[in-house]
């Protein structure tokens, strides 16, 4: 494992959910690339914050990554799910046992793709009915097998720390939580 993560952006993504993951992973010395699903140099978030991407989808060598992350936001989630080449890669990662993670509305994508059958999962409350086959929880984050889900902006730190724990261990994630003054 080379501990490399790709997080995907489509117009309307939830800024705090996406950028908290990037920030915490980089603080934990993990390699995480911000990737435009639609090959744009910058992507506009749901609250009109324009974020410069590290690379575009077409520039992404998926063989270099251990995890794909999908941030939420209603419009952003729809954009991600409509990107068929991205969905093919998400399917490939899931089926090969590599990590996939989603927060807020984006876990609905995993429900639609059949990833959640028999797993614990969570999402933004309005999307819980789309977590097909899952045991839906109200936890801030669920890690079940190679799938991580989380509920929304308010659980962004839990989500980011769970991703960090996958690659750096629980103790490192706890140390990072303390370092950023996050008390669970």
Which structural traits does this protein have?
7-stranded mixed sheet; 184 residues; Rossmann fold; 35% helix; 22% strand; two-stranded antiparallel ribbon; alpha/beta; 6 helices; single chain; globular
Topology:
Layout (H helix, E strand, L loop, with lengths): L3 E6 L5 H13 L3 E6 L5 E3 L5 E3 L2 E2 L10 E4 L3 H9 L1 H13 L2 E5 L3 H6 L7 E2 L13 E2 L4 E4 L2 E4 L5 H13 L1 H10 L5
Parallel strand pairs: 1-2, 1-6, 2-5, 6-7, 7-11, 8-9
Antiparallel strand pairs: 3-4, 10-11
Helix pairs in contact: 1-5, 5-6
Strand content: 15-25%
Report strand order across the widest sheet. 5-2-1-6-7-11-10
- Give a count of the beta strands, DSSP E runs of length 2 or more: 11
N-to-C series of helices and strands = EHEEEEEHHEHEEEEHH
Radius of gyration: 15 Å
- What is the highest CATH level, the class? Alpha Beta
CATH level 3 topology: Rossmann fold
Indicate the overall shape: globular
Structure at a glance:
By secondary structure, the protein is α/β, with parallel strands linked by helices. The chain has six helices and eleven strands.
Written overview of the protein:
The chain has 184 residues and is of the alpha/beta class. The protein has a single domain (4-104, 147-179), classed as Class I glutamine amidotransferase (GATase) domain (Rossmann fold). It has 6 helices and 11 strands. The chain has helices at 15-27, 74-82, 84-96, 107-112, 156-168, 170-179; strands spanning 4-9, 31-36, 42-44, 50-52, 55-56, 67-70, 99-103, 120-121, 135-136, 141-144, 147-150. The chain has a 7-stranded mixed β-sheet with strand order 5-2-1-6-7-11-10. Helix 1 runs parallel beside helix 5 (156-168) and helix 5 packs across helix 6. The longest helix has 13 residues, at 15-27.
